[in-house]
Amino acid sequence: MVRTMPLLRALLRTARVLRHTPRLSDGLPPDDAVLLDVPDARTAPTLVAAALGDWQPAAALLSGVRADGDWESRDRHVRRLAAFAYARDDWLVRWLADSPRDPDALVVKAELEVRRAWDSPARGERLREIGPLIDAAADRAPRDPVPWRIALDHARGTHATHTAFESLWEQAVRRSPHHYGCHVAALRYLSAQWYGSHRECFDFAEKAAEDALPGSLIKALPVRAAFAQLISGGYSPVHADRIDRATDLAVQLSAGYPAAQPGPAEVRNLTVSVLVRRGRWEAALEQFRLIGPYATSFPWTYFSDDPLGRFLQDRDGVRARLASMTPLRTGPQRGRTDRDRPAAH
């Protein structure tokens, strides 16, 4: 009888998974409908035009958001256009040839060259060479914080001192005190992986989130610090409590945005990754529903060369976990909160 108990438990678990997994799929798009790094509705037409060699829609988009002072959108558009130019930059070369002092062309070029330098074996040397390009982009658009966000990323790769980094940070926040991209760049610099520590990283993230405007993506900075702590390993119960508080704040932020939108997708992908690693299955499933079809490369590239495959794998795993915990003949388990569930390590 004793020997049959593990087999019986395994059979019951399998029966629960088979019975309840279809129900737990409600609200989730099928695997083949999930896409990776989908551009938003404003950027997509500029990428189509760029693929045809036409830079003017990109110029119109970036000049418009610059005139409006919509720095968050500008940063997203610049990143997306530079990512496209990484593989195909003929349209950008033509743009710069036609308008060599255009601040929008210069900022895309600066972002592109920083990305290329980061991927180069001669990273430090390449980054130092493109410092003047970043300066030119900043000079041509004095109100724009995006060149300063690029400068912060650049400084991390050139081993800038804390004093030099703080000087760049001051210039960035002078232009936009609540710019999300600049805060993310600063958080990376302060991480234990680079020039700070987990404590510095968390302290900066929590203070920034506390001061952030309602609904600002800056409120997701603590969950970024939590992710950095989790992937480094070796955290204590004190760290775990701080990680859970950060994740709760990100869950609250996510709930304030419409479901299945590309704008908050990266924050939601990050949040669900932390929830999975903390074994918070119910909250994770809700985030997967809010994500809808919008998977993002970050954070899944930390775990796999196939980020979309890893996203789908974790999504399946969450459904299977919840299904295996649900009794065969009753509704979902009650009496335990999501925060009470044991963490996954």
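Second entry:
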Amino acid sequence: MSSKNIGAISIVAGTAIGAGMLGLPMVIGSLGFFTGCLILLIMWALAVYSGLMLIEINLEFGPGVNFNFMTREVLGRPGQIVATGSVFFLAYCLLVAYMTGMGSLISSVISVDARIGSAAFAVISAIIFYIGTNALVSANKTLFSIMLGAMVVSFACLGGQLNLQNLTLGTPTSKGLLFALPVLFTSFGFHASIPSVVSFVGESKKSLVKILIIGSTIPGLCYVAWLMLSLGSASPEQLAGMANVDALVALISGGSTWIGRVVSFFAVLALVTSFFGVSLGLFDLVAETFKRGNDRTSRAGTSALVFLPPLAASVLAPGSFIAALSHAGSALAIIAIFLPCIMVLKMRSAGKNQAFRAVGGSLLFLQVSFSAL
């Protein structure tokens, strides 16, 4: 496999692995490990198929075309407004989740109010974005590599206290399933990176399909291992009602200060790398949508538009980590499933999309759309 394809796989996997991973034990705990893995597999298949639809659309327009342009060309101005609005909503919900999670972790380390921790994290991030993004991108690559190492160490530490009996517990319910689905789908939210991958790799259909499948399978395997270790470290009753990252870390650490620090370090890096990635995309989207310049005054205003709304929400609702991820999952369903299905159906009916077509026809597309409801 070429180094370019490996790099593209890392883009897909790196975009998916993040804060959504931390939320999985909180929403799957009551369902049980095996039920959770089955739902995770279904969400993976759904995410891969919707990714194939986006590749089909992207290849029709050519490499380098963004989602905003594609929706305008296929669905017109109304479709573009829905798509752009959904991206804004998704990004802001994710930033609320990240700020809330970081606030709770900072609070557990230095004993300050979680809202103060969220505010400090937001201010520091805004200053970094105001200074420039080149250093941020380089730093984020390094942080992601460190995060993967921290994840391996965390898994090793948690493995020492794994109780296999806990994996057989849990009672699947329709309420618990509906509560878990948005967070599970958010965990496979790599779809925004598809246009970048097509632009980077080119129009090799075989390579793009391979990149999508491998790049989405890596997070899936990491999630299964994470669920085994976290659910094996606590009972469903203990995980029930949990809504923030610090409580989860304290619970699965089993009272061990060392394990707690290792898992907290991994959680912080997962939040930071995801936060920077989403913030960067939102920063560019705000600048493009509101036609803002790149001078110091304009960057300051753009930073305020990016960070102040989610900061206000995280301060007003400091325990909203899971709730924010759930709302993000709803927006992602529109961006990654509903709109691609409608666009593919419309383009195929016009005789387009001959270069590459995802498997299935109109009935399958409708079934995929219905499954996201």
